[in-house]
What does this fold into?
Amino acid sequence: AQSVAQPEDQVNVAEGNPLTVKCTYSVSGNPYLFWYVQYPNRGLQFLLKYITGDNLVKGSYGFEAEFNKSQTSFHLKKPSALVSDSALYFCAVRALISSGSARQLTFGSGTQLTVLP
Amino acid sequence: GAVVSQHPSRVICKSGTSVKIECRSLDFQATTMFWYRQFPKQSLMLMATSNEGSKATYEQGVEKDKFLINHASLTLSTLTVTSAHPEDSSFYICSASKPGQPNTGELFFGEGSRLTVL
It folds into this structure.
C-alpha cells in the first residue's frame, strides 16, 4: 500500500521568511511525488513533481521540493514567503510497480499555510 | 497546462432530488477522469475512476448506485448524486490526466462543485 503523511495541519510563517511544508511517503515501488495547492472553494493546482533525476525540483511561484530517498521525504520549500502563498497544500504520491502498471494517486491530509504580514 | 472545467460550482437542492455535476477537459482528450470528495479541512477522497466508454471503477465503500458516473466522450464525465440527502453535502472535485502520461503526468483539476442538500 502507498501512503503520504503531512505531519503538520498548520504552518505559520512571517512574510519574507523561508517556509517548509513537510511530507513523507511510503511506497513499495519507485515513487512519483507531487505537490498541489488549493485556495478556498477551488480545485487543486499543480505546483511541482518529482519523477526522476535531480533531487531538487523547482516548480511554480518560486516553490521547490527536495526528494530524499533515505528519509522518504519530499518537503516543500520557498526561500521567501508571500502573504498570497497562504493556502492549503497537498502532497501526493503514485508508485510505479515492477509490472509497469501504476497505482492511484494518494494525497496527504493537507497542511494549511498561513503567511503573516 | 491544461484546463478542466467543472459545472456547476455551487448547487443547493432538496433532499430526495438528484444532482448532476459535469466535468469537461477543454483543451485535451481525457480517457480517464477521477472524481473526488472533500470534507471541510480534510484531504481528497477518491470516489471513482471514470473511463471513457466503459464502466467506472468505484473505490471501496462508495455506492455506485448512489453516485452514478458516465464518461460518454473523451472530454466529458458526469457525476450524478441520486436521491441526495444532507449527508451527501460536500465539495466534489474532478480531475484528469493528459493522454500518454498516466503515471508521470500531473492531474488537472476542475474548480470543484459545492453541493448542499437541504
